[in-house]
Amino acid sequence: MSLSRDLRDYKELKGNMMLEGVISEAFLTLEGVQDEADPQFAFDMIDLFISDAESILREVNNAVRDLRQLNLVLADAQVHQLKGSTSCVGVKRIRTLTEAFRTCYLQGSVDGCLRIIKELNQEFVFCKNRLLYLKNLGMQIKAAGGVLP
């Protein structure tokens, strides 16, 4: 692929991801913080978010794995931590679900909490794949000597 096509694809992908709620203005801010001293900053934050979110979701899933020993208090604490992690890259879709989980938790809706946890896992996979694609395309552009739009 040509650099100009990659640049166009990157810009289009980022725009689509904004519309889909995969990223928000927070990600644009991260990109703006990048400089020559740390040109991979936004991509490093993507890696950090994915690593943190995988760990947090593992804990959430463990807290609700056995319905006889359901620990929604722990799941709520972990989901709150996930909400904070979404802020670093602005993953809006997951943040919205963390807020929905909190509402279900406060209402005492076990079924609602379990449904949201399932959705969180699905949305995380979707967002992770989109973020990694954006990161890989961005790194490809930089490796070719391009500057991200």
Structure characterization notes:
- The chain is mainly alpha-helical and 149 residues long.
- Helix content is 80%, strand content 0%.
- The chain contains six helices and no strands.
SSE arrangement:
Elements: H1 3-20, H2 25-33, H3 41-64, H4 72-89, H5 92-107, H6 110-143
Order of helices and strands: HHHHHH
Distance N to C terminus: 17 Å
Low-confidence blocks of residues: none
Envelope shape? elongated
- The overall average pLDDT, rounded, is 92
Number of distinct helices = 6
Content-based structural category:
mainly alpha
Q: Biggest β-sheet, characterized?
A: none
Helical residues, percent:
over 70%
Our Rg estimate from Cα atoms comes to: 17 Å
Short précis:
The protein is 80% helix and 0% strand.
List keywords for this structure.
149 residues; mainly alpha; single chain; 6 helices; 0% strand
